[in-house]
Design brief:
It is a single chain. This protein is mainly alpha-helical. The protein has 3 domains: 5-42; 52-142, DNA polymerase, domain 1 (Orthogonal Bundle), CATH 1.10.150; 158-326, hpI Integrase, Chain A, CATH 1.10.443.10. The chain has 17 helices and 3 strands. The protein has helices spanning 5-17, 25-46, 52-62, 68-84, 86-89, 98-108, 112-132, 158-168, 177-186, 190-193, 227-237, 251-262, 271-284, 287-294, 300-306, 314-320, 323-326, and strands at residues 201-202, 207-210, 221-224.
Length: 327
């Protein structure tokens, strides 16, 4: 049977020691058989697992309702794992250690920022495995999360702001005016902007509603429809209440052409949101209000990354928020 007589005797003794007193003969034998039968199923269930490859696929299926950008990152992560790390991809989740995870992430990630993003994705896959009972622990939790050094994002210069807004008024680019104004005077992220509809603007309460399904963080927030932005949008709409997506068709190509025509390339990601934050604080001088407008849970990110008022004068900040200057 694969074990020695001494081992069999030892196992029988341990089994009998765990039996209740008073059972004898056939009752004791049947009780021991029940323990062996049920115990076998418990052990098999406890050791049930799937490969990392299978866990990734199932995790993707469970998140089919996520945003296209999130799904793209998940599929990109899966492709790199399956193409470059076939050994760990075929290992059972229960057998994968923190060292395996670290070696895999350091191999497929070219930058610390990519490492952090992939660490989150791998963590979510093991969390999925724990929910299904394929592993008892999440080895990614043991990995150190490197502290990223944020690069300085400088707000748009006054000349670049004027160039963008004046270029947007030209006939070929007028369709870009609403999204440009909302990103600049409401601090809406570019990806959020592409999901916004005219119905998300509450003209009576003078707010723009960023719904959970539209926001980057998954939380809802309201940002103020400042007079300069309201005037900018009303003049374009000619008093009509529009509906549907705010960004026009062919938005990405049109938006690039506008920036090129205005002479503000190359372009830093989220620079309009950073410009909004810096000009907001320079003019309104209220960090708590700005934190609410930005949708941040703490002011830490504002202080460490967003606020860069170098070169912004009080007069320019006043003009930035003045409807008469732009509309």
């Amino acid at each position: 049977m694969g074990i020695s007589l001494d081992d069999a005797v030892q196992l029988s003794r341990e089994l009998l020691e765990r039996c209740p007193r008073g059972k004898k003969g056939t009752n004791l034998l049947n009780y021991c058989r029940d323990i062996i039968c049920h115990g076998s199923r418990v052990v098999q269930e406890a050791r049930r697992s799937v490969s990392l490859r299978q866990a990734i696929e199932i995790s993707l299926q469970e998140r089919e309702d996520r945003r296209p950008r999130t799904l793209y990152e998940l599929h990109y992560f899966r492709r790199r794992i399956l193409e470059s790390c076939t050994r760990i991809a075929d290992m059972e989740l229960r057998c994968i250690t923190a060292q395996h995870c670290y070696d895999t992430l350091t191999y497929i990630c070219g930058t610390p920022r990519q490492y952090c993003k992939d660490r989150v994705l791998l963590h979510s896959i093991f969390a999925c495995g724990m929910r299904h009972g394929w592993c008892n622990a999440n080895p990614v939790k043991a990995l150190h999360k490197p502290r990223l050094r944020e690069t300085e994002v400088i707000s748009l210069s006054w000349e670049n702001i004027k160039g963008l807004l004046h270029t947007a008024k030209l006939p070929p680019f007028r369709r870009c005016m609403p999204p440009l104004g909302i990103m600049l005077w409401a601090g809406v992220r570019p990806t959020e902007m592409q999901r916004l509809h005219w119905e998300d603007i509450n003209w009576e309460d003078e707010v723009i509603m960023i719904r959970p399904k539209h926001s980057k963080t998954g939380g809802a927030r309201c940002t103020t429809l400042h007079p300069v932005l309201r005037r900018w949008l009303v003049n374009l709409c000619c008093g009509e209440r529009l509906s549907g997506p705010i960004c026009p068709s062919g938005w990405k190509k049109l938006w690039y052409s506008l920036r090129s025509e205005a002479g503000v390339l190359p372009w830093q990601q989220d620079v309009l949101r950073h410009t909004f934050a810096s000009y907001h604080l320079k003019h309104f001088r209220d960090l708590s209000l700005l934190q609410i407008e930005m949708g941040h849970s703490t002011p830490y990110l504002l202080r460490t990354r967003y606020l860069n008022m170098r070169g912004i004068t009080r007069e320019h900040a006043r003009q930035f928020w003045s409807p008469k200057e732009w509309c």
